[in-house]
Amino acid sequence: MRLLGSVPSARLAELAGDRRFLRRLTAVADDLGDYVTGDRWYQTRPQPAELPAAVAYFSPEFGITAALPQYSGGLGILAGDHLKSASDLGVPLIGVGLLYRHGYFRQSLSRDGWQQEHYPVLDPNELPVALLKEADGTPAQVALALPGGRLLRARIWLAQVGRVPLLMLDSDVEENDVGERGVTDRLYGGGSEHRLLQEMLLGIGGVRAVRTYCRLTGHPEPEVFHTNEGHAGFLGLERIAELVAAGLDFDSALEAVRAGTVFTTHTPVPAGIDRFDRELVAHHFGTDAELPGIGVEHVLRLGMETYPGGEPNLFNMAVMGLRLAQRANGVSLLHGSVSREMFAGLWPGFDPDEVPITSVTNGVHAPTWVAPEVVRLGARRLGDRRTEEALTVGGPERWDAVASVADQEIWELRRGLREQLVLEVRERLRASWRQRGAGTAELGWIDGVLDPDVLTIGFARRVPSYKRLTLMLRDRDRLMDLLLHPERPIQIVVAGKAHPADDGGKRLVQELVRFTDDPRVRHRVVFLPDYGMAMAQKLLPGCDIWLNNPLRPLEACGTSGMKAALNGGLNLSVLDGWWDEWFQPDFGWAVPTADGAGTDPDRRDDIEAAALYDLLEQRVTPRFYERGRSGLPDRWIEMVRQTLTLLGPKVLAGRMVREYVERLYTPAAHAHRSMTPDRARELAAWKGRVRAAWHGVSVDHVETATATATAELGTTLALRVRVRLGDLAPDDVEVQAVSGRVDPEDRITDATTVPLKPIAGPDLEGHWTYEGPLSLDRTGPYGYTVRILPTHRLLASGAELGLVTAPSEGAVAGAGVLMR
Fold it and tell me: Which reaction does it catalyse (predicted)?
């Protein structure tokens, strides 16, 4: 936008008559036209009618490009990569977010190293966005009702992310009062009510913006709504209100909405979840405010922490997101497991591994994060078309060509990227010191900062305490020895922002900055303020090692290490997030975790820092500096090659979006289509009936019989169970045998479930008899139990209602451990 605004009209007129320029322009425009309108991965799937017609993707922040600064950290960058990869694959996504007039803060440092925040005003007319307009040319608007008869109005800005439209709501419009104009002022700013209004505008206003966009453009209406973290959870309430207005009761509308909703949780840290006082939420809903067709008690019931360990007076946005979605996921295999533990209270009676939260491991958008030099190397080997497919669609077969790249080529590539980083760091460091008040005459030393031939380590992320920015400073003498080693030195580039309200995080930044200011080491370790996309695109490719040392398991995924890997960087990380899932010695090093129950936090940091120093001294630096017969570090180069060949295809956002389409979006679209109003009423009525009658369901007797005197491997037991169903019928439940290995506490692990069949009943006492086989198919300590779950064809999971009945101890004859 700035470029076009600065080119004189005479120059544009001159170019309009330049045939060579026009040929180039036509070729580029045709290429873009093919990208935007041609068939891509999604359009070439078998049975395309089975796929969702459209998916709406809601997120509080989007990191699309440095020219559109509407992100704070990993959540926004992930959302931006999701949109860009959906565009590459042809997935019909509509992004929905807010347009913050100040974005997230810009960071600088005071002379003594304290973080300072600045909030430059962003003019949408200078951003790559355009107003969505009605047919008569007036700006399209959405409005929310506020208590006291006020309105919160918002315009809709459209950012075209390739094929994907991103709708961004902006409350800074003249018709609003001063308070309402400021609702979309800053990302994650303001107090509780301010945040609540932002999230109501994102969720409720966002759905209205999607409806407006589809009406004006003819875009297919979304069949699936994807809630990226709890901030956008109110979108489900607006969709319920739409159905209630069309004649459905609340419970039936809830079932219809849940069927087509996907919820992704991004944090294993409770502090990362927005929670509001119930009175504040109640104040903003009901007859005098928003969604008057839905009773306030219905709204509150969706978000209150009414489970063991919860705080019943708090409204939890993630809890509401989970209750409003039939499908939910974490963002790495480990995070899925942590989330099942964290939210297990919503499904009482079920072991955490049965909580219906799956995982789709995050990925990164390679065309955004891979250095042009790496892309050119791929193009020389694969050609432009296959390189583009390798970076967008993925697939290991497209990455195998890296195996044939010569060692010399890989080493020259890595040194070139390191050299670019050195120049970038010096330029940014000089600008930072000038902001801190230093004069030019004081800064001659910056010309000697970093060395393009020294092993370079990168560490850049947000600065909450659990990410442990200063773990590297735990033993400063050892760190100095590593930085200043006469033969095998290291150099470190650090960046990161602390939240404006987090003084503890700011103290960590200051502690690190003061260390980097030490004249003895300042040529080997630097802190760069104002970490963002533009810096990351230079920093990530230039680092040989990407360091990550969070407190395990508090890192949900941690995608920056993936971006480093796509450029041939090796990871040095605690086994957390994605690294726990995909770590191999070929790709880097795992920092051991000291997470024993008796280890206090200080002791844990000491142990893990010592392990980090040991790895750097004994394994990492020797491998980088040792030379083979060719005079190159051939063992290091082989690790780079293996990282690109084997890890590269896994860390792609293309792989991630394909998983969302196949595992979550498509099943959600099918559930949405099958959930007609009549079926929604049927399911809601059935759930109400089952909940009311569940107190009458019990397992009264369990017995086994076998043809042999001892239970041996391969034996099949006959299992007979007598149950009471109360007011329910066999069609309402499934009676299951649950069997598996038994751990030292006599708990069944790695369980297998087998449904039992009713053979008689009800008798005069109301008992039903169920039977089925139980195969002893494994050796070792082995046990079984029986349970009853609700079942219905429209449920996505047997755990969905959170209801389960198991036998009392006296009901089991001969059950327990069968084999040892």
Answer: [(1->4)-alpha-D-glucosyl](n) + phosphate = [(1->4)-alpha-D-glucosyl](n-1) + alpha-D-glucose 1-phosphate
Tokens at 396, concatenated = 């290991």
pLDDT at 780 over 90: no
Q: How many CB atoms lie within 10 A of CB 734?
A: 17
Residue 106 main-chain phi, psi, to 5 deg: -90, 140
Find the Cα–Cα–Cα–Cα dihedral 325, 330, 333, 337, rounded to 10°: -80
Evaluate whether 382 touches 398 at the Cβ level (below 8 Å). Answer: yes
Rounded to 10 degrees, the C-alpha dihedral 402/403/406/408 comes to: 70
Query: What is the 3 state secondary structure string of 57-69?
Result: EECCCECCCCCCC
Query: What's the whole-number mean pLDDT along residues 368-384?
Result: 90
Percent pLDDT > 70 in the chain is 97
CA dist., res. 800 & res. 793, Å (int):
12
Say whether pLDDT at 708 is over 90: no
pLDDT digits (tens, 9 = 90+) for 285-335: 988 899 999 999 999 999 999 888 889 899 999 999 999 999 999 999 999
Residue 45 contacts by C-beta under 8 Å, 6 or more apart in sequence?
Answer: 51
- Which residues of 488-569 form beta strands (DSSP E)? 490-495, 525-528, 545-548
Residue 742's DSSP bridge partners are 748
Beta strands (DSSP E) in 468-530 are: 490-495, 525-528
The pTM of this model reads 0.95
Strands (E), 71-215: 93-98, 106-109, 115-118, 130-131, 141-146, 150-161, 164-170
Is 351 in a helix, a strand, or coil? coil
Using a CB cutoff of 8 Å and minimum separation of 24, what contacts does 705-709 make?
none
Locus of tokens 């030379």: 627
Q: Which is nearest to 732 in space by CA: 690, 697, 691, 766?
A: 690
